[in-house]
User: What shape does this take?
Amino acid sequence: MNPFKKFNMWFNLAKKNHTFDHTAFALGTENKGQPHTRMVLLKLILEDGFVFFTNLNSNKGSHFKYNKKLSMCFYWESIHKQIRIVGKGSIVDDKTSDKYFASRPRGSQIGAWASDQSSQIKSFSYLKQREKKFEKMFKGSDVPRPDYWVGIKIQPKEFEFWQQGNFRLHQREVYFLRNKVWQRKMLSP
Assistant: This one.
């Protein structure tokens, strides 16, 4: 089976049965030998990868600029499944980022301008002042996408599908690329 098809099957099952946001995944980055993990949301599923959106000036954005190797891990406790993906990131085209940015609530669009993501601020009231500044700046017009706000596509080179079993006898199925062809192997839990 193609791992993208299996991903879509499990993802749709999670959508129907998971009580929390099924699009949430742990994003792993690395910067100068130090791993970093945080939760982000999957926004697009493409034929060859998975897209999340971020500020390139944020910590995760600077980590991505330093090292394009990324990992993602979905865990859906309600269906006893996990998918781990390892791959390489690339910035999606401007049209894709523009389209998604335009679909966001106006407040989120303003927030992308107001927040210098991951930078230190004096106080929360400072952030609220910046929000008001950009609300005033864009009053009566569409909010344009900032150049630093982009989609990053993770193109997988490996998938691991984990399904919980009794007495820790979990099923672990790994798909990996070899000569541009998906290969499959099973792992002991």
Summary: The helical segments are 3-17, 59-66, 94-103, 106-114, 124-137.
